[in-house]
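Bumping with the actual sequence this time:
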Amino acid sequence: MLGGDGALVAQVAGMGGEVRWRAVDARELARIPPSAVVTGTIDSVLYGCVLLPLPTNRDLARRWLLQARDSLERGGVLILAGANAEGAKSVTADAERVFGTPIAEYYRQRHRITRFRKTEEGRDLPAWASADGIVPGTWQRFDVDLGEDVVSLETQPGVFAGNRLDAGTRLLLQHLEVEQGERVLDVGCGAGIIGIAASRGGVGHVDLVDANLLAVEVSERNLERLGVSGCALASDVFSGIPNERYDLIMSNPPFHRGKQVDYSVADRLIGEAPEHLTRGGRLLIVANAFLAYGKQMERVFRQVETVAATRQYHVLVGTEPR
């Protein structure tokens, strides 16, 4: 199974047999009961069936369509499922370019389930099927100008913010100050640029955490490529680092989970930060201007300063926890 949530994986595993799952969200791992036989990730073994719940990122869906093609045995079946409002029709059209005409389609409550069968016949694939990042095992590349340095990063579909530096993170980086030897944490690291930029300031150690397992994989790769001393860890905010403390915690916190608005990450980031800051430590975040994180930070910190502000974003720093 490629993506999807833990409840679906547990249900499929409950039908008997072993399920191999390429999980994306670390939070979903906790939803697998001990009785379910769920192992590892998709590997070189050929399968009779691949289940693909529709991801929100179309390029990730395309990557996984190619992964499904490579992972299915001859005559194997791909089951593609998703909501029409989340792009199921478009991804189904992409699947037809890879697998041909569906063998069955079902529609219910604005959702669709489409089944495809892998055959051995040759098929001309669309141009996107040879693009970097979409071909399984390849990476998208982009450069980030840090002023005195240009950092080359690699990423893949499904990781914030794609193969570019988003405007909010750029504003935070323009006002990032670190001191020699500091311990730094980047929460919601994406491809790792905030933590990597901090490492250029001579920090003693940097940890990068994200609940998105694709982001952890990407950040780990970038740390290794760039020779940065640090770790990339799967963590739902601070859950994966319960006993660690840092001089500086930084984040461009997400406020969506899939297509749903979700402030829980920012709420926990701000509320739990004091437990993970050293004495004199600080929390630095960037957020959309319409989000009232300043008031929330003032309930947690005695000192809250707006470091930078544009019409779209503001950068806030909190010190002296209450």
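The tokens above came from a reply further down the thread. The two ends are 46 Å apart (CA to CA).
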